[in-house]
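Re-run with default settings, no changes from the original entry. Doing this only to confirm the output is reproducible before filing.
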Amino acid sequence: MERICRLLNQALAPYQAQLSLADERGNRQLTVHDHLAGITLQRTVSEFQLQEQRLLVDLVDGLHRDLQIAEGRLQPCVIAALQQRQQPQGTFA
């Protein structure tokens, strides 16, 4: 897990990530701190998310988006609009 934590810290710089010990279900608490050591984000993540490369990339992408929202650089309504544009349009008969 130390390697995963280092990767998260590199990916989320200048923020610092910290992973708790696994609970009985294998979940860990991921805490992201700002430069003043304040908690910016907290997420519960599964062991599988941290070990499967594709899921780890998705996790980091989501954390980047959430950090932009926390910093006020991205509004949640913009994300919703982008997601709606990316969904395939259904065809109606």
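Strands lie at 16-19, 27-33, 39-46. The chain has one domain: 2-86.
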